[in-house]
Amino acid sequence: MKLHYSLIGLVWMGAFLDMMYHTTLTSVLPKALTLTNPLMHALMFEIRPTVAILGAPVAGILIQRYGWRAMIYLPFQLLAIAGAVLFVGNNSLTYLCVRILQGLAAALLYPAGFTAVSRTHDETARGTAVAIALTGDVAIIIGPLLGGLLYDWGGRHLLAASMLALTVLTLLALFSQANSARGLPSDIPSIRDGLAASTSHQAGQGDLESIPQASSTGGMRPGGMTGGGRGYGVFANLHFVVCLVGLLVPWMTMAAIQALLPLYYATRYHLSASYIGLLLTPPTLMEIIMGIGTGALIDICSLSHQLITTIGGLLCSGSIFLLAGRLETHQLDVCQPIALTLFGAGFGAVETSSTAFAAKFMDDHGIADHGRLFAVLELAFNSGLLFGPLLSSIILFVTSDPAQPYVPLAALYIPLALLSQWSYVAYRGGPALSSGRWTNEQTPISSAAISGRDYT
């Protein structure tokens, strides 16, 4: 199992910076702006995932057209511009522009970054590589506290300078690695690349231009395209939809918890901000720990992605039901932090297994279009950030019951677990694996290309 730690580290830093920008501004906006219109205040929080959702499909097409190597620089440049914009002024328009730039950066960052991780690691390492890169979400833990401290100490200028410095240093590290002697890692040949090699070998190296071939940019050469030219239609598969739901539902729940629970704790139990932050730390820590552990279970123990999603989904459901049932107590009891911690464990397992299965699904079907793959996954992620707080806030407004927003979210994990269990039983791989036509008819060249070995 070979891991490209330098590339994983850069993608990790990208995810870290994205969530740092998102979470630091979450704590700063109520202090920086005195908005009396709740709709305008909500717009500041919702604009980032909205822009990311609209931009992700276009980003996937661009990444597939030009390759992840050409596109991976752009999100860091957009984040650097966002940091510079913070110096302009302390008004609604400034923060709105920053949020829009964040959304554009996120739309490109996750498809390009995780395409890079997926395409440069084989099945023995992909789950672990993706899991490590996903731990960039650790910024969720420190972002709100750090943003508040920086703003209190030095205002928006200190906050902007800190974020801009981090972004520029990461961008310089990316340029340095790309221009080094070793350069960025090479893509692992996919099954489709193996078929192309087999076809060219059997044709006596005849019409090479008609065969789709991977380019050095991580995309495709003009001679062809992956995915059979179906574009986003390749994702119209129930097994793949299950893995999308495995990303959507946990992020809806996490976003709803972060949006509503701090306010409830402050008004119901009169807790301080630091105490509230401490209570919200365990679920994120457990998400990271279980994410890495899940990647190891997939790669080392060959545990089924769908089985992990089933177990993790049931754990999420039970923990959120427990949390909802204990919110009406007169004082904070131990069950609430325990429920949040258990949710974090299930969240990490479901998120990592769903992301790793998506990459496996593409390989099983002989599709190298990982740019559009991670654009679709980015849609699911940002849809969770958008609709979780929106729906839970509406339910809270209608019912005035602090527990009710979490009950529907907890119930969503039950069909997710059932669908994942069905997928675990029914999934037999794609046509590239199940039909045998790409494995039984391989030439030595195609076999070597698929396995990643050199052919001599």
From TrEMBL:
Q: Which UniProt keywords apply?
A: Membrane, Transmembrane, Transmembrane helix, Transport
- Cellular component aspect of the GO annotation: membrane
Q: Which GO molecular function annotations are given, in alphabetical order? A: transmembrane transporter activity
Matches recorded under InterPro entries: MFS (IPR011701), MFS_dom (IPR020846), MFS_trans_sf (IPR036259), MFS_Vesicular_Transporter (IPR050930)
In the UniProt record, does the keyword NADP occur? no
Membrane topology is: Multi-pass membrane protein
Q: Where is this region: Disordered?
A: 199-222
Q: Where in the cell is it found?
A: Membrane
Query: Which Pfam families does the entry mention?
Result: MFS_1
- What is this protein identified as? Major facilitator superfamily (MFS) profile domain-containing protein
